[in-house]
Design goal:
Elements (H helix, E strand, L loop, with lengths): L1 H18 L3 E2 L20 E5 L10 H12 L3 E4 L11 H15 L6 E2 L10 H11 L4 E5 L2 E5 L16 H13 L5 E5 L11 H10 L4 E5 L6 E5 L2 E5 L19 E8 L2 E8 L2 E4 L5 H13 L2 E3 L4 E2 L2 E2 L1 E7 L6 E8 L4 E3 L3 E6 L4 E10 L10 E8 L4 E8 L46
Parallel strand pairs: 2-3, 3-4, 6-7, 7-8, 8-10
Antiparallel strand pairs: 1-5, 2-11, 5-6, 9-10, 11-12, 12-13, 14-17, 15-16, 17-21, 18-20, 18-22, 19-21, 22-23
Helix pairs in contact: 5-6
Length: 440
């Protein structure tokens, strides 16, 4: 009897030890899509990092790696777009992967790869992914939680009708059938396929997930949004170095990683900005709809700026509040090379359904030069749970009258009939506007 009890205790200890380890799929390859399987400690906390590329900003991802190391999670997962890619140049791809893997080498815990459209663009890149990592989709278990790492770029779609392929769909079904009773299922892929009308196989995956507790993590759009689908949390994460307007949490644009703590009651989510912490509702689907509504209405418009006798007297903005409650408007103005606004910051409140014109006097400090830096304005239309932002450049206009010509005018797009037109310019004029910040 004691011998049987000893075997029983050894079995329990063995089971408990197994549950404290990552249990990977047996991928038939010497190379694997993970760096190691040794977790940090017994606390169940992990990190998800998001888009680094699509026009990366140097130094940001590396900064995130350092901050993640300070927090010491058990492991780190990605949602893709790790290199710039989009090439079949093997030397260039090797260079980009070597650079990225140099960043990953700095992690003090395991890192799990997921393919994004920049990482898995064409067959050359797909073959390289297979060679480097051994699998384009895979799963692992940790403490009775199933981690399912998928490939939304199945078939190297290069953004053409992305979806889950048939082989991958069958794999997902097999894995979910094998682990029907895990306490939670975490799904990772690059693109939020639920926003794509063509992603029919993904809808089949959602159907497979509907009766189990689960969460889905994606990236791609470089804008954080929390969706509620399948009675669960579905995330598109923002960036950790990818191109971004960086307009702040109320527009879902920030550099961050997501910190997840798995408890008996389910996961807790914390968005750790590289300069702060926000909860999972930092930007929701409702706020995204609100922002798009304001984008369509354009509540702040800069009126045409006219110069008289070579001078600008003022800049005017037409502000319209479409809401049933007061809203604040903030204008941040920067000097032109030849003119200075009387105020650097203008703040006013606009009443419900009210329209008003805000005029900012301008002091001339030089001669107008259409090729020089114009007056730049950042307009912020602020609510309690959102902010609408747009940037403007004030290019001065003059009232022009065409001179009389004695010959017949040819409608051919050529201006030689008028000889020299007053105020005409050739070449690059001014600096184009940008939604991502002040143009430089």
């Amino acid at each position: 009897m004691k011998y049987i009890q000893l075997l029983f205790l050894l079995g329990i200890c063995s089971f408990m030890q197994a549950q404290d380890q990552i249990i990977p799929e047996d991928i038939k390859s010497n190379n694997k899509p993970w760096t190691s399987l040794e977790v940090n400690d017994d606390n169940f906390q992990f990190v998800v990092v998001t888009d680094r590329t699509g026009g990366h900003r140097p130094g940001i991802f590396e900064k995130g790696v350092r901050k993640i190391n300070l927090l010491q999670p058990e492991f780190v997962l990605s949602v893709g777009d790790l290199i710039e890619g989009y090439t079949e140049d093997i030397d260039q791809l090797n260079k980009e992967w070597a650079e990225f893997e140099g960043f990953i080498d700095q992690f003090e815990m395991p890192f799990f790869y997921v393919a994004g459209n920049h990482d898995y663009t064409n067959q050359v890149m797909a073959d390289m992914w297979e060679e480097k990592f051994g699998a384009e989709f895979y799963h692992f278990l940790y403490k009775d939680v199933l981690f399912l790492c998928l490939n939304s770029e199945d078939g190297a779609t290069r953004l053409r009708n992305p979806d889950i392929g048939e082989e991958q769909l069958a794999y997902i079904q097999k894995v979910l059938e094998k682990y029907p009773d895990v306490r939670w299922t975490m799904v990772f892929m690059h693109q939020p396929l639920w926003v794509r009308d063509n992603a029919k196989n993904w809808l089949k995956v959602e159907k497979m997930l509907e009766d189990r507790k689960h969460s889905v993590f994606t990236g791609h759009y470089h804008r954080y949004t929390l969706y509620k689908r399948n009675r669960s949390d579905y995330f598109t994460l923002a960036t950790m170095g990818g191109v971004s307007g960086m307009r702040g949490p109320r527009l879902g644009e920030f550099d961050h990683f997501m910190w997840i703590t798995m408890t008996e009651d389910g996961p807790y989510y914390a968005n750790v900005l590289l300069d702060g912490v926000y909860d999972k509702s930092v930007y929701t689907e409702d706020q995204l709809v609100k922002s798009k509504t304001y984008d369509a209405q354009i509540p702040v418009r800069q009126l045409p700026v006219f110069a008289e006798n070579g001078k600008i007297k003022e800049i005017q903005f037409l502000v319209t509040n479409p809401d049933d409650q007061p809203r604040d408007i903030k204008l941040s103005l920067r000097n032109a090379a030849y003119a200075k606004p009387s105020q650097g910051i203008v703040e006013e409140t606009v009443g419900p359904k009210e329209s008003k014109t805000i005029a900012v006097p301008v002091e001339m400090t030089g001669t107008i030069d259409p090729k020089a830096r114009p007056i730049r304005t950042r307009a912020e239309f602020v609510g309690e749970d959102f902010v609408w932002v747009r940037n403007y450049n004030a290019f001065p206009n003059e009232h022009q009258v065409l001179p009389v010509t004695g010959s017949k005018i040819q409608i051919d797009g050529k201006l030689k009939d008028w000889k020299n037109l007053r105020g005409s310019i050739t070449g690059t004029v001014g600096v184009p506007d940008s939604d991502d910040g002040y143009a430089d």
